[in-house]
Amino acid sequence: MSFERLLKPHSIAVFGGAQAQEVIRQSDRMGYKGEIWPVHPKETEILGRTVYRSVEDLLGSPDAAYVGVNRYLTIDIVRDLAARGAGGAICYATGFSEAGEEGAELEEQLLEASGDMPLVGPNCYGLLNYLNGAMLWPDQQGGRRVDEGVAIITMSSNVGFNLTMQRRGLPIAYMISLGNRLKFDLHDAIHIFAREDRVTALGLYMETMPDPKAFEEAVNVARELGKPIVAIKTGRSEAGQKMVVSHTASLAGSDVLVSALFERLGVARVDSLEAFIEALKVLHVLGPLNGGRIGATS
Questions:
Q1: Measured between alpha carbons, how far is 19 from 39 in angstroms, rounded to an integer?
Q2: Dihedral sign computed on CA atoms, order 71, 77, 81, 82
Q3: 237-265 pLDDT, tens digit each
């Protein structure tokens, strides 16, 4: 399964109301040059673009689709996109596995409907590509176009939203929120972004450690490719771990073990978003640090 078309789309289909319109508005603002095809059952024109009634009516198979509708319609649209050979879909809707037994059943239906098509989410904001201006994101964002920069992979859409607003001089090439990680998990994102020539370093905002073995393999690949990693891992306290469970339906895991794994793999752990941004800036400029001997002047 290749996520290449979804991550670097030349055509985007958008489904829904206000969220879908924001995808178009933000992509236009960032100078996206590809095709954008709005799909809506009633509108005839959205932000200067012709509206299509269904996936079947589109001009072709979209490289990326932003699905900003309710959870039930999401399943139907994803099924139609997969049948059309779309490059992938981002599912914004909530109410899946994070919402209990009924939601978990719907998430299984979503997985089946997607077939071999890549999918990000559900229960996520999506993807920002500041290299080509594709803003697959349902809200405002504060980033700028760059020629190269860091990739930030987050398990919290809200944290991702806030990080796009930073004015500390950190160039962001990609921002992706993972949501429920149905088909695209943390290690998948590390593998993909580590291989991107114009990505200089990786930043991880983690609420859980989904698969330690897969994580280790991905981090090793990133290290071999010279892409250093900075991470924030939440859920250090018992109360914090309970919050993670309620947010993502995932277990936060032992914090001591996570710290030990990070240390063994050479993942820099920080405890604040300020330190996260500043560490990524250093690694963006200097690349991976080859030892522990550091000098500072001020």
A1: 12
A2: positive
A3: 565 555 554 454 444 467 888 999 999 99
The two tokens of residue 281 are 């800036």
Q: Is the dihedral of CA 175, 3, 245, 215 positive or negative?
A: negative
CA dist 141 → 29, 123, 133, 172, 224 (Å): 10, 18, 12, 12, 32
- pTM (2 d.p.): 0.92
Of residues 297 and 283, more confidently modeled: 283
For residue 251, what pLDDT is reported?
47
For residue 208, how far is the Cα from the chain centroid? 15
Give me the DSSP letters along 92-151. ----SGGG-HHHHHHHHHHHHHHTTS-EE-SSS--EEETTTTEEE-SS-------SSEEE
Largest CA distance in the chain: 63
State residue 213 phi and psi, 5-degree precision. Answer: -65, -45
Sheet containing 119-120: order of strands = 35-39, 11-16, 64-68, 89-91, 119-120
49-50/172-177 β-pairing: unpaired
8 Å CB contact between 47 and 28: yes
Q: What is the mean pLDDT of residues 276-292?
A: 90
pLDDT at position 290 is 78
Rounded distance, CA 255 to CA 57, Å?
50
DSSP symbols for 98-112: GG-HHHHHHHHHHHH
- Alpha-carbon distance 280 to 263, whole Å? 17
CA 80 vs. chain centroid, Å, equals 23
Does the pLDDT of residue 169 top 80, yes or no?
Answer: yes
Quick one: 3 exposed, middle or buried, by C-beta within 10 A (0-12, 13-18, 19+)?
buried
DSSP state of 183: S
Distance separating alpha carbons of residues 140 and 218, to the nearest angstrom = 31
> Which residue has tokens 């469970």?
245
The answer to whether the CB of 200 falls within 8 A of the CB of 279 is no
My answer on whether omega of the bond before 228 falls inside 30° of 0, hence cis, is: no
